[in-house]
Write a structure and sequence with these properties.
Blueprint: H1 16-24, E1 30-34, E2 39-41, E3 49-55, E4 58-63, E5 69-75, E6 80-81, H2 83-88, E7 95-98, E8 102-108, H3 109-113, H4 120-144, H5 149-164, E9 165-168, E10 171-174, H6 180-187, H7 191-203, E11 207-210, E12 213-217
Antiparallel strand pairs: 1-8, 2-7, 3-6, 3-8, 4-5, 4-7, 9-10, 10-12, 11-12
Helix pairs in contact: 5-6, 6-7
């Protein structure tokens, strides 16, 4: 089944000043324009390249042994993709697919590594972003391992609120639409479970929603995760 989230927004991005460093380092790589549906890399394949997204959106997903698919991230402009495997020289842990036409800067790690001495800001930014993404992934795994779907869903909504939240009097409005199907794909739960859990969280006053828009209500125990890279 094709679970690509065509209407989804991105779930991760870096600060503008960090993104500018990667844009300024374009001469160390090459610009690529790819059509919708292009697979940048596949889980299990070797790979020394990583990508900076200039425009467009890329879905990063993991396939489990039983064939189940889990959406790891939805990356938009200002995101870095594939750097983990490139840095350590290991097979890809995920598959990356363009959700729409994209403009990317492709970097080959063995090549750019030789220029680190002359491009210290780029080297530092690459390592900082890779470390930040590793930390975020660890946090996500911690929540995904929890049997309670409400904690997973609150964690996801809290992260999106930190990225796209608009503070209001009674909470933070997530300024991007979300479907129950997308929430299920991002939290490793079923759509039925998401619907039931959202109703429970609304009853408890943790969240509220109008159609596809959600608010994180002011709750002292709500999970907060800042995903912006300094």
């Amino acid at each position: 089944m094709d679970s690509r989230c065509e209407t989804a927004t991105e779930t991760w991005y870096m600060a503008a000043r960090t993104a500018d460093i990667f844009l300024a380092a374009e001469h160390l790589g090459r610009r690529r324009e790819i059509p919708k549906g292009t697979t940048l890399y596949r889980q299990g394949d070797p790979g020394s390249t990583f990508y900076f997204v200039v425009s467009g959106r890329v879905q990063v997903q993991i396939y489990q042994q039983d064939g189940a698919e889990f959406i790891l991230e939805l990356m938009g402009a200002g995101a870095l993709i594939g750097e983990g495997s490139a840095l350590v020289g290991q097979p890809r842990m995920s598959t990356a697919t363009a959700l729409e036409p994209c403009v990317l800067i492709e970097f080959d790690y063995p090549t750019v590594k030789r220029s680190f001495r002359e491009n210290v800001d780029f080297a530092a930014a690459l390592m900082e972003v890779a470390a930040a993404k590793q930390w975020v992934l660890g946090m996500r795994i911690q929540f995904l391992a929890m049997p309670r779907p409400d904690l997973r869903i609150v964690e996801l909504l809290s992260r999106l609120a930190s990225l796209y939240g608009v503070p209001e009097e009674d909470g933070v409005r997530i300024n991007t639409p979300l479907t129950h199907e997308l929430v299920a794909a991002l939290t490793g739960t079923s759509r039925v479970t998401v619907t039931r859990t959202i109703m429970k969280l609304k009853t408890e006053g943790v969240i509220r929603n109008e159609g596809r828009h959600f608010w994180m209500c002011h709750q002292p125990g709500a999970a907060q995760e800042q995903r912006r890279v300094a």
